[in-house]
Amino acid sequence: xxAKKVHALSEHSIRxxxxxxxxxxxxxxxxxxxDAIGNVVSLLRRLDMQDGCRGRASFYLRITDLSHSSPTQxxxxxxxxxxxVDRRDEVARRFFxxxxxxxxxxxxxxxxxxxxxxxxxxxxxxxxxxKCLSISTRESEYSLDLxxxxxxxxxxxxxxKCYGTIKGMLEYINIHGKTHVFRIYPNVGPEEVACQFDSGxxxxxxxxxxxFVEVRGELRYKAISRYPHAISVKEISVIESAGAPDFxxxxxxxxxxxxxxxxxxxxxxxxxxxxx
Length: 276
What we know:
Shape: globular
Radius of gyration: 21 Å
Helix content: 25-40%
Mean pLDDT: 82
Largest sheet: 5 strands, antiparallel
Structural class: alpha+beta
Order of helices and strands: EHEEHHEEHEEEHEEHH
Low-confidence stretches: 1-7, 246-255
Strand content: 25-35%
Number of strands: 10
């Protein structure tokens, strides 16, 4: 379903509309309501903190209206945290662009996996505890129905693998259960990468906590995302100095790198070569 025009909201306000299942007479259970609102906030926060804005949200959401007449509706205002930083219009644009990219059949648009995972959480209750969920701004509206959930699942299913490395700050580790996992947070690229490892390199993982590291192993990509979301780690190296150049400093340094090939095609071909 494509975005459509509506004109009922004030600027920088968001309306969330929830239709309960027929088994509940159209009403929404309290637990489903809280989960849905929390998932919307989480998704908008991820969109707000994309592209080098990690850890620095530009707004918070304040409830300004709440009504229940089947459907349930909540209106929230986007309130700036810093008057000098305003990404509210950009977040709205990213949200509706993402929804249309998920709907698109050509598969040529690449999206951040972390954002897609947040969208998946938002869509999970659809057709179960919630019949339909709509998100509206003053300019546009999008409804998440059962078809959306199914399209998103198809987008997330294809996965590509290749051997490679990735660098980032190691700030989380979990060694409980059968699967050991830590996360790294790169300076550029994906917001975070889940790193699975076995007990043989546990000491290396512990030594890297709170440090900038390079990990080597099998990278995993969702076909719809340009960056890896996970890696099966074989080696971990602590980097004494992050040494990562500022993105603006290297922008355009190799203008003919792809020889005229579109960037997404060039990256995909590169993955295939690395995997051979």
